[in-house]
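Possible regression after last week's pipeline update?

I re-ran a chain I had predicted before the update to compare outputs. Posting the input and the new output here so someone can diff against the archived version. Not blocking, just want to make sure nothing changed silently.
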Amino acid sequence: MKIHAKSDIHLLSCEAEMAAATALQEVIQQLQQINDEEKLKNRMAIKALIRCTHFLARRHIPHTTNFDELIDLIVSCGAEDLKGFLERARLNATYTSKVAVVEFVEAVGLWAEECLLKRLRQASHFSIMADECTDVTTTEELSIFFRWVNMDGQPVEHFLDIVPLKATDAKTIYSALVEFMKDKTYRLASWWVWDSMEQLLSLGNTMVCRVS
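New output (post-update):
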C-alpha cells in the first residue's frame, strides 16, 4: 500500500480527482449564479405583470378583457425581460389569462389591505364607520371605513372591506363589526358608531347602545 501510494499512477489519480472536484464546484457555482440571475429576472417580470394589473384597476379599466392586450403592447415597446419570461414559460403557465389577472388583482388587494392595517394598528385611537346596503344580487352587505390620525398628525380615512350580512338588525351588525375588528386590527379600541337606519333606532337596541 505504501509503495502504491507513492507511485506516479496513484499521485496522478489523486491530482485528477482533485481537479475534477474543483471543476465540479466551479460548475455548481456557475449554475447557482445563473439560477439567481434567472430568479431576479422572473421576479421583475412578475412585478411588471402586477404593475399592469394595478394600472388597470386604479383607472377602473376592465382588467379581464384588457390585460393581455396591454401586455402585448408593453412587450412590443421593448420590454425584453418580460418578453423572454413569457416565451420561456411553460405552455400551461398562462400569465396573461383571465384567471391569472384575477389572482394578480387579489394579490394587490391583500398587499394594499395589509399596508392600511399596518398603519391603522400604529394609531393610538381610531374610529370606525359602517353602512349597510344591498347589492344587485339582493345580498345584505356592510361597507366598513376607518378614520385615524397618521404619524404626521393628519386625519386620514380609508375604505377597508365589505362584509356580507345574514341580517340587518343591530345584533347581527354589531357581531359582524366586532369579529371584523378582532380579525383585522387584533384589538378592540375605543370606537363609536352612529346610525340613522330606522330598524336600528329602537330603544335599547341601537348600535350606539350596544357599542357603549
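Follow-up from reviewer: compared with the archived run. Residues 123-211 form one domain. Marking as no regression found.
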